[in-house]
Amino acid sequence: MKPYSVYLFDFDYTLADSSRGIVMCYRNVLERHGFHQVDDHAIKRTIGKTLVDSFSILSRVTDANTLETYRKEYVKEADQHMTANTRLFPETEEVLHALKARGARIGIISTKYRYRILELLGKKFPEGFIDIIIGGEDVKEAKPSPEGLLLAISRLGCPKEQVLYLGDSTVDAETAQNAGVDFAGVLHGMTTREELAVYPHVDILPDLTPLK
């Protein structure tokens, strides 16, 4: 893989494993509303999608007002449970420090809210270490819309050919394709190598270690 001057990452299942907290929050909301048969695997398969889309998939509810109620309840659950139940992958800190040491800039593009990402990363990295974070509240259209990725590239003022976007899901792969930037898959999540390989990619990595 060629070196890039900017590395932009998805968050969940790419830099961090927040699946325990995510499952807990979804389950608390779903069971409160009578959905007792949704298993953990089904919940994990929706990670990376918007909260509204995930609740619709898991509950089969389509009413917008009901889904918005579920979304708001999830956010309240996450305020209590998410950060305590999120862990960076073992290699994440070392890899990000190595990229910065080489002079690369790094950023995060996620459907997770920016303040939630900052809440966790503030305990691990000095202020300003991550050059840019685009969260769900910063865009009008969620991934696979390229809006967040293009916003980061614009703010960083870098040519697309110098940018690599890394993510664990087909949503991430499609986002990179829609933005016209290189993509590398990371097999930390629930998406298989075969599913990622359908999309344009420069590599599919077992974890982040090869970036060092």
UniProtKB/TrEMBL annotation:
UniProt KW Transmembrane keyword: no
Keywords: Hydrolase
Keyword Hydrolase assigned: yes
Enzyme's top EC category: hydrolase
GO molecular function: hydrolase activity
Pfam families the record matches: HAD_2
EC number: 3.1.3.18
Record field: catalytic activity: 2-phosphoglycolate + H2O = glycolate + phosphate
Xref: InterPro entries: HAD-like_hydrolase_sf, HAD-like_sf, HAD-SF_hydro_IA, HAD_2, HAD_sf, PGP-like_dom2
Pathway where it operates: Organic acid metabolism; glycolate biosynthesis; glycolate from 2-phosphoglycolate: step 1/1
Family: Belongs to the HAD-like hydrolase superfamily. CbbY/CbbZ/Gph/YieH family.
Protein name in the entry: phosphoglycolate phosphatase
Organism this protein belongs to: Bacteroides mediterraneensis
